[in-house]
Design a protein that fits this description.
This protein is of the alpha+beta class. Helix content is about 50%, strand content about 15%.
Length: about 375
C-alpha cells in the first residue's frame, strides 16, 4: 500500500461516525456507524485482523444482489487491518428468538432456514463459502431472515486440500472446517442443517441430547436435517438450493395459509423490533381502530335485534362492514406502517399503498351494502314497502 492509497483509506475511515461498538475481540472490532457526509442510514464497520482477512471473499460478496444478504458498501486496507463497510440489518437474531421461545414451530423454523438457504446459494454463486452460519449470524425482521457477518468467509479454491485457517463455531461448523478437507458449499449446507435442527429442538447440535430431541421432529424433516449434517460432504445435499427444496417438500402447507401465517409472524416480529415513538404510535393506532370498530359493532348488535326487518338487516350489515373497514384503515394499516411491516417495507410507496388499501375498503363496503340490500329486498319484500 503506497502513501496515496493509505491516505484515501484513512480519509474514508474518518468519514464515519461511531454510534455503538457491537463487538470487540483480539481479532477485530465491529461498530455501528453513520456517514458524516452522506445519508446512507445505519452501516456496520468491521475491522478484521490482517492475518484473518480474506479480501477476495468480500470482493466477491459485494457482487451479490440478494435481499437476504447485506449490501457491501466499501472495503479498504489500513496498515494492520482490513475494513469492511456494509448495511446494518435491524431485527432480532435467531439466538435471541430461541432464548425467548425455547424452540420454534415447524413453519417458522422452515421459513427461516429457506431464507438462509437463499442467502447462502447467492454467496455460493460467487464462489464464497460463509463458514459461520450460526444462530447469532441470522437476523430476522419483517423482510424475512438475513445472513450476516462474513468475517471468516472465504473463496473456494480449486485443488486446495484444506482451508488455510481452521475456524468455525463448534456445533454448527462442518467437520472439514477443523482441518479434514477444504470447505465448499456443502459446508454451509451442514451449518444450515444444524441451524434448522437447533431451531426445531432448542438443543445445540453438539449437545449429547440433540439426537434424542430430533426424534420428536416429523420424520420427513428429520431426514432432511440428518442428510444435511452428514459427516462426509458427498453424502449431504449438493447445495443450499437443493436443501431449500427438500425443506419445502418436507413441510407442505397451503400457499394461502402459509402467506397469511408468514405475514402475521412478520408483523408480530416487526412490532417487537420497533422501539420509541414508532412503537407507541403503532399501539395508539391499534387502540383507535379497535375503538371505532367497537362503536359500529354495538350498532350492528342493536339493529340485529329485529333482523326480519329488511331495512334493519341491510343497515346492520352496513354498520358491521364500516366497523371492519375503519379498523383496517385507522388501526391495522397505520400499525403496519409504523412498524414497517409488509406491505409497507419500501418507504417511497407507503402512502400510495395505504391509499390503495383505503380505497379497496371503501369499495368493499359499498359493494357489500348493495349486495345485502338486493338480497334483503328479494327475500323480505314486505319490509321495504
Amino acid at each position: 500500500m503506497d502513501d496515496d492509497e493509505l491516505e484515501q483509506s484513512l480519509d474514508l475511515d474518518d468519514s464515519f461516525e461511531v454510534r455503538q461498538v457491537l463487538a470487540k475481540s483480539d481479532s477485530g472490532r465491529t461498530e455501528l456507524v453513520v456517514s458524516k457526509d452522506e445519508n446512507y442510514g445505519l452501516l456496520v464497520r468491521k475491522y478484521i485482523a490482517r492475518e484473518l482477512a480474506n479480501p477476495e471473499a468480500w470482493s466477491a460478496a459485494s457482487k451479490v444482489s440478494c435481499p437476504q444478504v447485506p449490501r457491501v458498501f466499501a472495503t479498504y486496507w489500513l496498515p494492520d487491518r482490513f475494513v469492511v463497510i456494509y448495511d446494518y440489518v435491524e431485527g432480532v437474531s435467531v439466538r435471541e428468538l430461541m432464548r425467548e421461545k425455547g424452540r420454534l414451530g415447524l413453519q417458522e423454523a422452515a421459513s427461516i432456514a429457506v431464507d438462509v438457504c437463499l442467502a447462502a446459494s447467492e454467496l455460493h454463486r460467487q464462489g464464497v463459502v460463509h463458514r459461520d452460519i450460526t444462530p447469532g449470524n441470522v437476523i430476522v425482521n419483517n423482510r424475512g431472515a438475513h445472513l450476516i457477518d462474513l468475517g471468516i468467509a472465504r473463496r473456494y479454491e480449486q485443488g486446495a486440500r484444506h482451508d488455510t485457517t481452521h475456524l468455525g463455531t463448534f456445533g454448527f461448523a462442518a467437520p472439514e472446517q477443523f482441518g479434514f478437507a477444504q470447505t465448499d458449499a456443502r459446508s454451509d449446507v451442514y451449518s444450515i442443517g444444524s441451524l434448522l435442527g437447533y431451531m426445531l429442538t432448542g438443543v445445540v447440535p453438539s449437545d449429547p441430547g440433540f439426537d434424542a430431541a430430533m426424534e420428536g421432529v416429523p420424520e420427513a424433516l428429520r431426514k432432511v436435517v440428518e442428510k444435511a449434517r452428514s459427516f462426509e460432504p458427498s453424502a449431504r445435499h449438493a447445495g443450499a438450493t437443493e436443501l431449500a427444496e427438500r425443506i419445502q417438500s418436507a413441510v407442505p402447507v397451503s400457499s394461502m395459509l402459509e402467506e397469511r401465517g408468514r405475514a402475521a409472524r412478520l408483523a408480530r416480529l416487526a412490532f417487537h423490533t420497533t422501539r420509541g415513538a414508532r412503537r407507541v404510535g403503532a399501539v395508539a393506532f391499534l387502540v383507535l381502530g379497535s375503538a371505532l370498530a367497537l362503536v359500529f359493532l354495538a350498532a350492528f348488535l342493536s339493529l340485529m335485534r329485529d333482523p326480519m326487518q329488511g331495512t334493519n338487516l341491510a343497515s346492520a350489515i352496513l354498520e358491521l362492514a364500516i366497523g371492519a373497514a375503519l379498523f383496517d384503515a385507522c388501526g391495522l394499516q397505520p400499525f403496519l406502517v409504523m412498524v414497517r411491516a409488509q406491505p409497507y417495507v419500501e418507504g417511497s410507496s407507503r402512502v400510495k399503498t395505504y391509499l390503495r388499501r383505503c380505497l379497496t375498503d371503501v369499495l368493499l363496503v359499498i359493494g357489500l351494502f348493495i349486495a345485502i340490500t338486493l338480497v334483503a329486498m328479494i327475500l323480505l319484500p314486505s319490509s321495504w314497502q
